Amino acid sequence: MDAAGHELADRIRALLSAEAEVEERRMFGTRAFLHDGHILLGARPGGVLLVRVDDESGAALLTRPGATRAVMGARTMSSGWLDIAPAVLTTDDELMFWLDAARESSGSAVETSERD
Predict the structure, then answer these.
(1) Which of 23, 36, 61, 109 is the most exposed place for a label (fewest CB within 10 A)?
(2) Domain spans of the chain?
(3) Domain 3-106 is in which class?
């Protein structure tokens, strides 16, 4: 993982509550954040954010700036796997939007820390 990916992982960690039962694991070249064994988000090389949502939500979220279907190896994933460009993740509010989208799609009760 490069410096941009590590920085993004640090930002994700800071937004997640210390009490949340979120597991952090290295998977597929990504620093993944899981709840109940399911990926919520991942920090990818280059500072790209991987977001897991349900396919219906993903189709709608693909219209947002910077959102594309995730590509893993030679495979383009379903609309439930999104890559979010670093250029649209400049604030914690923008990053929080994607964390909330992943939580809502997973039905997760993961708590997030208070934002300034």
Answers:
(1) 109
(2) 3-106
(3) alpha beta
